[in-house]
Design goal:
single chain; 90 residues; mainly alpha; 4 helices; 0% strand
C-alpha cells in the first residue's frame, strides 16, 4: 500500500470514529457546547477572531513602533503584555 493510500485510509477511519463519538455525547456540557456553536459556523468564528487579533496587532505596532524591530518572540510577548494592559486579555 502506498503511503498516501495508507494516510487516506487512516484519515477515513479517524473521521468515522470522530463522527461516531460526536453522535454519542459523553456529558451534558458537551451537548450544550455543540449546540452553542454550529459546526458550519466554527471556521467563520475562527476567521473573525483571527481578523480581530490582526487588527489589535496592527494597532499595537502603530502605538509601539520600536516593537516591530524586536525579534518575534520578544515582540509577541510585548504584544501579549500590551493586550493585558489595555484590557483585551485577562
Amino acid at each position: 500500500m502506498k503511503a498516501h493510500e495508507k494516510i487516506t485510509s487512516d484519515l477515513s477511519k479517524l473521521v468515522a470514529s470522530s463522527q461516531k463519538t460526536e453522535l454519542q455525547p459523553s456529558s451534558p456540557s458537551s451537548t450544550t457546547a455543540s449546540a452553542t456553536i454550529p459546526q458550519t459556523n466554527q471556521p467563520d468564528n475562527f476567521r473573525q477572531q483571527n481578523n480581530e487579533q490582526n487588527k489589535l496587532y496592527r494597532h499595537f505596532l502603530v502605538e509601539d513602533a520600536e516593537a516591530a524591530k524586536l525579534p518575534s518572540k520578544e515582540r509577541h510577548e510585548k504584544f501579549r503584555q500590551w493586550k493585558t494592559k489595555n484590557g483585551f486579555e485577562s
